[in-house]
Specification:
Blueprint lengths: L1 H13 L3 E5 L18 H4 L7 H6 L1 H17 L4 H11 L5 E4 L5 H5 L4 E2 L2 E8 L5 E3 L10 H6 L18 E5 L8 H13 L2 E5 L10 H8 L3 E5 L12 E3 L3 H13 L1
């Protein structure tokens, strides 16, 4: 792998407009589950929960699912891969970081990131639009996960807006919703301008976000994919690494900026 790392580092250093694109595999080494691998989150919880329909029809299931995710998000810390990307960006080697992730770990590591799927760091009221830190949604009493497993769980007052009493929702893009227009326009513009595009930890299975590397390829960009499982663009990538993201990114950082 050393030779390929040297090749990628040299190409990255010479790129005029390098763009990063990250997915859930970026954060697995911080202890957060991914979604579509053999042990991904959608194998544990049905994908239908991440919808407004679920919030209306199964509020207990919906709120527990997001409370469970929020609790783990705030307990997680950025890993060496997040830190490597922040260092590369600070040194001028990342023009834009696009992420499918909603965990905020890029920002906590010091990067600016365009969040295509929103954020799980905040929640907002469905009625009045008031915004809150997402930890507001966590039950105050201990044992709520045990209550869920025992069939005793019910969403409590933490799920209601303190200003108007309306229901709260996470500020993520749920299935069936459109991506934030400004974020998507920024990501598309940068992807179409990229001459070097790096995909990290994404299965590239979710659209329209997975069009970003396609836009870059149409511009003649050199494509790098760092992902533990295969993607549909592997045969169009110049370099493919079937390795954990943090180790590869840390190695590239060392070779590019020391």
């Amino acid at each position: 792998m050393t030779g390929r790392l040297e090749e990628v580092a040299a190409a990255w250093r010479s790129a005029k407009y390098p763009v990063m694109f990250t997915g859930a595999g970026m954060s697995t080494e911080s202890g957060l589950p991914d979604f579509r691998s053999a042990r991904g989150l959608w194998k544990q919880r049905p994908e239908s929960l991440a919808t407004m329909t679920a919030l209306r029809r199964e509020p207990g299931e919906f709120y527990f699912f997001y409370q469970w995710r929020i609790a783990r998000l705030w307990a997680a810390v950025p890993n060496t891969g997040h830190e490597a990307l922040a260092a590369l960006a600070a040194a001028g080697f990342v023009k834009l970081l696009i992420t499918q992730n909603v965990d905020g770990l890029h920002q906590r590591a010091g990067s600016d990131a365009v969040e295509l799927h929103g954020t799980l760091r905040t929640v907002s009221c469905l009625e009045c639009g008031a915004g809150y830190d997402s930890r507001t949604l966590l039950p105050a009493a201990a044992g709520w996960e045990d209550d869920y497993r025992a069939g005793r769980y019910l969403p409590g007052k933490e799920c209601a807006c303190s200003a108007c009493g309306g229901g709260l929702r996470p500020d993520v893009v749920l299935f069936g919703e459109s991506l934030p227009a400004a974020a998507w326009e920024t990501a598309e513009r940068a992807s179409r301008a990229a001459d070097f595009f790096v995909v990290v930890g994404s299965s590239l299975a979710v659209g329209p976000a997975n069009l970003c590397p396609e836009f870059a390829l149409a511009n003649g960009a050199r494509l790098v994919i760092i992902n533990q499982e295969a993607t549909h663009l592997d045969d169009r990538a110049e370099w493919v690494f079937r390795d954990r993201a943090a180790g590869v990114l840390a190695a590239l950082r060392e070779r590019i900026i020391g």
